[in-house]
Amino acid sequence: MRLRLTLAFEGTHYAGWQHQTSGVAVQEVVEHALARLFPSRPRLQGSSRTDSGVHALGLVAHCDVPRTEFRFPQPNSSWP
Description:
Alpha-Beta Plaits, globular
């Protein structure tokens, strides 16, 4: 199951979006949170990237999660 995430973050204390050897990246932090929800530890694919210290509003990323791990209610036609 592919999940789309739309993210906003203040990048002041991050080394940008993508994994970096020089510091903590936003991608790492979000993947760590996803690992707490999904045992398969999904990897994120971002639609773009930011430099160190740059903020973002509406950055889109996706990850693939095995359907067997997805335990959230599925949206239905009665949702707005």
